[in-house]
Amino acid sequence: MEVSNRSYKAIRSWRKEGLNLDICEINRTFKYKKQKLFEVSIKDILIEEEKYGICAKKGNYRKEMEDTYSVTMELHNSSFKHAFAIFDGHSGTEASVFASKNLIKNINTLDEKGIIEAFQLTDILFCNDNPRKGGTTVALTIIDHGHLISANIGDTKIILVKNSSFEILSYDHVASDSSEQSRIELAGGYIINTHNTMRVCGQLAITRSIGDARYKDFLIPIPYFKTTKMSVEDIALVIASDGLFETLSPEQVGAIVREKQEHQPSQIAETLAAEAIDSGSKDNVTVMVIKLQEFYTLACSQTERNKQKSFKF
């Protein structure tokens, strides 16, 4: 699947010419795949599953919950590909709900090119139909044959917790980041301090998103992409909206996961979310915890079987 240059370049003309994208052309170049997709717009919830758990709590200072999530357990008809994502919407829930329904199924290939194109396509389709309906961050990880394929835009984080350390698999696209400032200024935008936070055009603290059509010259949907090989040291993957990190550092998140690793993933997620809210986080908090030991064991078993099949006497 490829998003045509003509279709994608049309983004930069939205503010002047309106949203006149050739969706028929986009649809002709993209083949949708049927799959099991679980998505929901959430308020305060606790999802309990064997391999993963989700806890979401509406912030005490928020009028509504704008976070959503997606879990796909059979991506591309393979029992070894599982996708997990959290979406943190702003200026309404339209963008986060749309992305949670469409982003994962828009993935055609699991390489960097395929992931980027899925983000671009989701952005184009949303902005074409919702030019004034806000935007959303994304944090996505796909578990594929012993590898973690991660991609994010905005400030929703992905943390890999190990036995004695942690690794951040995402990158915060925020207006205080010097490289993002340079990119936006070269595109003709500006960043100023508003209410003690650096913001694009004085409005948005993030610099990449799906949606935000009126700022599309500056807020691009190109994700940070990273592939990580799983190891026996890996305990769990934590995907969380930025409300978790208003009061907890990644180091603290890792320590809590290690301390609670014998608990169910939903209990770990609930502990993290409750700790953030109780410590004074004002934002919505959504936490997804995916235990990795079984995924790693499954991948090792499949690798061994493949070796045995290919061995010739």
Automatic annotation (TrEMBL):
SMART domains attached to this UniProt entry: PP2Cc
Protein name: PPM-type phosphatase domain-containing protein
Tagged with keyword Membrane: yes
Chief place where the protein resides: membrane
Lineage: Eukaryota, Sar, Alveolata, Ciliophora, Postciliodesmatophora
GO molecular-function terms, A-Z: protein serine/threonine phosphatase activity
Keywords attached to this entry: Membrane
Short name of any one Pfam family annotated for the protein: PP2C
Subcellular location, record wording: Membrane
Organism domain of life: Eukaryota
Source species: Stentor coeruleus
Any one Gene Ontology cellular component term annotated for this protein: membrane
Keyword Iron-sulfur among record annotations: no
All copies of domain PPM-type phosphatase, residue ranges: 51-292
InterPro entries: PP2C, PPM-type-like_dom_sf, PPM-type_phosphatase-like_dom
